[in-house]
Specification:
The structure is a single chain. With 90 residues, the chain is mainly beta. It has a domain of 50 residues. The protein is 7% helix and 19% strand. Strands 1-2-3-4 form a four-stranded antiparallel β-sheet. A hairpin with a 7-residue loop joins strand 3 and strand 4. It binds zinc ion (ZN) (2 copies). One zinc ion (ZN) binds next to loops.
Length: 90
């Protein structure tokens, strides 16, 4: 019958230690290095962790070299990768 593989129950939910999202492990995290959103830019965004008081341990994506200065909170990138809403909620 169907070609669906049924895997044994060894694979429980994994949570990535890099981005805290479920479904992959840290070494396979797609958010560690992402391409810059700007079409004209070939830069790489790197996942970093904020350690400021207001956003302690909040993850964000930052341009590796400060050429274009792109910045995005990981939560924004994950939820709405296309729309770029600029909402400031603290
Ligand atoms: Zn991840
Ligand atoms: Zn860029």
């Amino acid at each position: 019958m169907g070609g669906r593989k049924h895997e044994a129950g060894t694979q429980s939910k994994v949570v990535c230690q890099m981005c805290n999202l479920e479904g992959h492990i840290a070494s396979k995290c797609p958010w560690v290095y992402t391409k810059c959103k700007k079409a004209t830019c070939n830069g790489i965004m790197k996942l970093m962790i904020s350690l400021t008081k207001n956003n302690y341990e909040r993850k964000f994506l930052k341009y590796q070299h400060s050429i274009c200065g792109s910045f995005q909170w990981l939560s924004d990138a994950v939820i709405k990768p296309r729309e770029q809403k600029e909402v400031h909620q603290v």
